[in-house]
Design brief:
The complex is a heterodimer of chains A (449) and B (187).
Chain A: H1 22-27, H2 32-38, H3 42-52, H4 64-69, E1 80-85, H5 95-101, H6 103-117, E2 121-126, H7 131-146, E3 162-167, H8 177-184, E4 209-213, H9 214-226, H10 228-232, E5 235-236, E6 239-240, E7 242-249, E8 255-260, H11 266-273, E9 283-287, E10 296-297, E11 301-305, E12 311-315, H12 323-328, E13 337-342, H13 347-361, H14 367-385, H15 392-401, H16 411-439
Parallel strand pairs in A: 1-2, 1-4, 2-3, 7-13
Antiparallel strand pairs in A: 5-6, 7-8, 9-10, 9-13, 11-12
Chain B: H1 15-27, H2 35-46, H3 51-61, H4 65-74, E1 86-91, H5 94-98, H6 101-111, E2 118-119, E3 125-130, E4 142-144, E5 147-149, H7 157-167, H8 183-186
Parallel strand pairs in B: 1-3
Antiparallel strand pairs in B: 1-4, 2-3, 4-5
Helix pairs in contact in B: 2-3, 3-4, 6-7
Classes of the chains: A alpha/beta (449), B alpha+beta (187).
The complex binds flavin mononucleotide (FMN), iron/sulfur cluster and FE2/S2 (inorganic) cluster.
Amino acid sequence: MPAVERPVIYANLRKPGYTVDLDCYLKHGGYEALRKAVAMKPEEVCKEVELSGLRGRGGAGFPTGMKWKFLDRESGKPVYLVVNADESEPGTYKDRQIIYKDPHQMLEGVAITAWAIQAKQAFIYIRGEFIHGAKLLEAAIAEAKAKGFLGQNILGSGYSCDVIVHRGAGSYVCGEETGLIESLEGKRGYPRIKPPYFPAVLGLYNCPTIVNNAETLAQVKHVLALGGAEFAKIGVPGDSGTHIWCVSGLVKRPGLYEIEAGKATFGELLYDFCGGPLDGRKFKAIIPGGSSTKILKFGERFKGKLPGGTEFDWALEDIPLDSNSIAACGTGLGTGGTIVMDDSVEMIQALSNLNAFYAHETCGQCTPCREGSLWLSRVSGRIAKGGARESDVPLLLDIANQVAGRTICAHGEAVAWPVQSAVPKFKDEYLESIRLRQSGEPVPKLKLI
Amino acid sequence: MHGPSSSAPARALKPETLAQAPVIIARYPQRRSATMPLLHLVQEDRGHITQEDMHWVAEQVGVAPMQVLEVVTFYPMFRQAAIGRRHVRVCRTLSCALRGSYALMEGLEKALSCPRGETSPDGDFTLEFVECIADCGCGPVVHVDGAMHENVQAEDAEKFAAKLKATLKDPSYGQHPPVPGTPEWNG
Ligand SMILES: Cc1cc2nc3c(=O)[nH]c(=O)nc-3n(C[C@H](O)[C@H](O)[C@H](O)COP(=O)(O)O)c2cc1C
Ligand code: SF4
Ligand code: FES
């Protein structure tokens, strides 16, 4: 049977004539899940989310129910909910669709989650470039408040929760949850050290705070609509629900594909959904889950054991699209932002492009990340532009190895992983790139740096 | 405080801007959280942020001016110098680069007579590379003021530049209410 999409999050927003206003949302069953939630006890809502097996969609795949359990409910301080709508991981453009085409779907998830964790104040941290998106959200919040879905006395329950839309200003590291919190407090987005600053204990204004990705909260709406046990039947054990694959780069049909977890493979995604490589080209590599995940090369074999003990032996095309299978191949599902490269791409230029991104985005607090990202960008840049030595190739790896695991936030890993995964796989090609430039021979046409 | 500031003394902020500040501050549990929204507000009013503006924001949110400067210098979207009439931002990051954003940038540099990172001598355009703006499946993308232009191919750089130049003569530029699917809606 050919693989098919299973739109849940995108089910409505793709319908012709579907609009962002509340009336349209209500006609499509909107806010019924919230009605169900406020008739339940907050703990019961948390239980449903735990049962659902939902994992966060912000990149780390952390189980949402478990995150909510870590919340310090005894502190006596107010609890805050923060929606991470920063969507800043290169290759990722899924939350944008929800915000621009179906904002109430996310807001319903916000209201349900706020009720579950008993937050009286929620914040939506939206990336600064989503100028119109922020306005759409504000308009949607006003509509929802007027009808009692948000704001004072939600659906007559006596419970109130206000929502503020807060715009970022172009900094990637403000997508990291503690950097985001600092930014919300009106400061530079310097990530905080954990411990002690686990948001669920010491978050915004040093109060217990839950930070969830925008799509995660849209998923929560469906958890409540279906019930946790039913939701858990979508997908595969260990990864429930659908994943939105954001495919970009060199394929025939880049785009967004919502697929039940584990029910298709990378081969099906890239050939059946995306139409395969551009005419006359061959696929070379993909970055599977946003720019920070480790690169996979076509032609590699992936062997090992899944968490359940099942052995596997896969080509890239065979890897099933669920978190555990992808993690078993040494990389991550991340945000589902799959960046595709073909045989027209000079791999050192691709790496150098990403290194330049991380060098631009490091916040500079940690020496390994600040210096490492800059060095990686410079060294890969001189391989790509000329002036490199052969020893620069192992030097890249040497630098990256000194960054990962030695920093305050996971930006350190984001700096290191692309290099650590790409250098062993493309070393020979990098050496060839150096040779081409030393001998003055023509280099590939497509310029990436 | 240091930093570039324009030679002519800056005009006062608009009364609407001043009036909005207390409304924004009142939304937040703590005043200081209003720092970024106030900076956005000022930048929308004036086009950039001056030293006086930073002093004003600092006073509003109850911090030292230096703490506002720290914020302004951290975030790429805040700027202390004036820019051209049209702010053209081409995405540089990998997905867009794979679709030709470097060639597109070269084409725009020529067609707008403006090197990247600079403002054209006539003050019409500021042309910049920016990092991923979360529209990676439609690359190369170009963010112009508030509008997101998708699939701008390098070979169409001249045509695209001509379209941008035409907006300079359009008195209703930026006044149209966004329609779903248009660059203004996606921006
Ligand atoms: C450098 C960096 C950037 C991040 N950017 C984002 C982002 O743009 N959006 C997002 O939801 N999570 C981002 N995250 C992950 C967040 O820290 C956090 O894990 C996530 O918002 C939690 O939500 P979830 O549990 O619903 O996935 C980023 C993490 C790092 C280290
Ligand atoms: S790892 Fe990098 S981005 Fe994260 S806190 Fe350290 S310097 Fe900043
Ligand atoms: S890489 Fe250009 S929008 Fe993401």
